[in-house]
Fold each of these.
Amino acid sequence: MSTKSLCIELIDTFNDEQLSNVLQLLQSIKSIADEAADEAYCQALLKEHLKDRNENDAVTLENFAKELEIDLDAL
């Protein structure tokens, strides 16, 4: 019997009040699992970025201001 079938079989033994509690628990677990997946995805993106970044990608404040046509001396 599959895990899902066993879970359904067990759920069928609960009354409505117990099912309400089970539902709240499952929603909390799902939320935690989703957050963990999001965190893992973000960590993978950061790791990829740090691995691939090139020091030439850095822009100095002066060059950035120049691109925006801002005179830093006037500030």
Note: The two ends are 73 Å apart (CA to CA).
Amino acid sequence: MKNLNQSFRTLTAKIGGCAAALAMLGLVTLASADSPGKQPRATMEIDQLLTSVHELTSYNGDAEVRNQHLAEWEQLWSEDATFVINGTTTFTGRDAIMGFFAGAPFFNNNWVGLSPSFRTLVAVQGNTAEVYLECIFLNEAKTVVAERSLSGTVKRVRGHWRFWQMNNDPAMPLF
């Protein structure tokens, strides 16, 4: 980062603020490309995994959509995953977890799952990452029907990020 700051000052002195800012954007992009010790690609892939949570838990009032979403949802979990609800109920293995989700309200109603993106956290540590996201579900009347969090550890399985040791608890209060 020290080299980037020095480069920015040099560019600013030579070519002016606007051009320097564009050049700096290019330098930051190059510096953040996949390289040893850096994980921006992993973070982007995990962000997509977390985005899938709300895509697949929304609009499941139609049986055909519900079944398609459940099939896609299943692929997001590692075979050896655990899922703990409210710190008390544990489901072990993808099949047991899917049994729970098949009966979950958001897979059986026409709700919409939303997430305050500024409260989503991803911390990559090699082939695992700690994650936190919030799920705010609205019904068709636009009434909040559930506020939950999904947190825990995801891991890379055969080149893809999968939910592994996950917890489902009430979301942290906004205020």
Note: Confidence is low (pLDDT under 50) at residues 1-35.
Amino acid sequence: MADSTRSELDARDPDGLERQIEATRAELARTIDSIADRVAPKNVARRSAEKVKEQAGHVMETVSGALRRDPESDDDEGGLPVPPAVLIGGAAAVVAVTATIIVIRRRRRR
């Protein structure tokens, strides 16, 4: 059946119209729940923390790679051997600074 014919029949059929209304209500409820979940402070904070961790991980990989180059290799400029504790400390510092910046920016928005 064509859509116009179907809608004409549904308009005449109270049960069909009621089903359409219930389907629309259910879809609207799902949309509202999705929006509420997206803007919930707990979820926003969790996503922000995940972004900070991801960015810190990328920084850590970049710094670690740059510092751990093989000085004997001809294809790079060499690097300094760095103890893992120094790398972990550097990553922790990056995470702390990034988190502090995020907190300060959020407080300014209020």
Note: Residues 41-110 form one domain.
